[in-house]
């Protein structure tokens, strides 16, 4: 398999001391990264007091079979826009395959399918996203702030949100408690 300079399908982790409180201990599932920019969905923090049932109610969707799962803080861009990261066993009108590891849907059809029990087998819901313009993430990756690990569906669906940051570092054999909060110069 050819190594790509792009991070689509990987997990981007904020290093201690990133310097932006919006991304402190962030774990971001990168869903698109190419020469035009990047888009990721935060998977490391949930929104206090907001569950899936309340979100479905805002769209007048009966929660039906859906558990009242937490809603994730997807990122600071368009915080009222919803996204669902999910297994590749379901596809809707706008579903995007993310490097064969998971899929991303951003329209209401996926919420309806989850509620009626016909949706993807595994999923998480987020509001907002993290976005980078052309070359922005590439430039940020040359400075202290971010670390990436291969995307693993288990990190998305089997680990609680508040543990995903540490668990993602652990996949690379790193204990984040031992990381310095600043970079040096050579």
Automatic annotation (TrEMBL):
SUPFAM superfamilies: VC0467-like
Family per similarity comment: Belongs to the UPF0301 (AlgH) family.
Lineage: Bacteria, Pseudomonadati, Pseudomonadota, Alphaproteobacteria, Sphingomonadales
GO CC list: cytosol
Signal peptide residues on this chain, from the entry's feature table: none
Name the record gives this protein: UPF0301 protein FPZ54_01610
Native source species: Sphingomonas suaedae
Pfam families, alphabetized: DUF179
């Amino acid at each position: 398999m050819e190594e790509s300079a792009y991070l689509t399908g990987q997990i981007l982790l904020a290093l201690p001391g990133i310097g932006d409180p919006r991304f402190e201990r962030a774990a971001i599932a990168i869903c698109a990264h190419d020469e035009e920019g990047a888009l990721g969905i935060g998977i490391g923090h949930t929104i206090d007091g907001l569950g899936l049932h309340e979100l479905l109610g805002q769209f007048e969707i009966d929660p039906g079979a859906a558990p009242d799962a937490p809603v994730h803080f997807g990122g600071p861009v368009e915080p009222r826009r919803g996204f669902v990261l999910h297994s590749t066993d379901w596809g809707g009108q706008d579903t995007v395959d993310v490097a064969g590891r998971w899929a991303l849907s951003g329209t209401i059809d996926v919420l309806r399918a989850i509620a009626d029990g016909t949706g993807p087998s595994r999923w998480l819901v987020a509001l907002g996203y993290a976005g980078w313009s052309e070359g922005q993430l590439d430039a940020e990756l040359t400075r202290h702030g971010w670390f990436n690990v291969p995307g693993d569906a288990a990190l998305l669906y089997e680990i609680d949100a508040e543990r995903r940051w540490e668990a993602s570092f652990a996949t690379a054999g790193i204990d984040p408690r031992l990381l310095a909060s600043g970079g040096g110069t050579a």
